[in-house]
Design a protein that fits this description.
With 140 residues, the protein is α/β, with parallel strands linked by helices. It has helices at residues 18-26, 42-52, 56-76, 90-100, 123-131; strands at residues 4-8, 33-40, 81-87, 105-109, 136-139. Helix 5 (123-131) links the parallel strand 4 (105-109) and strand 5.
Length: 140
């Protein structure tokens, strides 16, 4: 169904339901590629560099290790994916990524559970869904 999927990965959200949804979205198409993208914010960068002496590559190495349980689930399901890390402001970098690449769909996890309409989506999810022409699927 979809061949080029962007999955912005945020370590504060839950992604338990995502691997099974990715199987459905790709329909086991061997040509489908999922880009798992994590943004290291400027604040995280400056804090880790200043206080922990870490470089961008050190931060991304740690994050890749933390991401391993999720990528193991993707491997178990036979999904093709690539993991990428970028640095900058989350919304700005995601919008840039979506505009520069021709993704078929953006798949986002959302941990908000409040019933009020204005709080249904998280800040980043809301801004991305509102500002792009690419279809956005939000998985709870």
């Amino acid at each position: 169904m979809y061949k080029k999927i962007l999955l912005p990965y945020d370590f504060t959200n839950t992604f338990d339901n995502v691997p099974d949804q990715l199987v459905k979205l790709t329909e086991n198409n061997d040509d489908a590629v999922i880009t798992v993208l994590n943004i290291v914010t400027d604040g995280e960068m400056s804090g880790d560099v200043r206080f922990n002496g870490k470089s961008f590559s050190g931060i991304t190495k740690e994050r890749a290790d933390k991401l391993k349980p999720f990528t193991d689930k993707l491997d178990e399901r036979g999904l093709n994916y690539e993991v990428r890390f970028e640095a900058g402001r989350v919304i700005t970098e995601l919008l840039k990524e979506i505009r520069e690449n021709e993704y078929d769909i953006v798949l986002m996890s959302n941990r908000r559970s409040k019933r009020e309409i204005k709080h249904v989506l998280g800040h980043v999810t809301h801004k991305i869904a509102k500002r792009v022409n690419t279809p956005v699927m939000i998985i709870k």
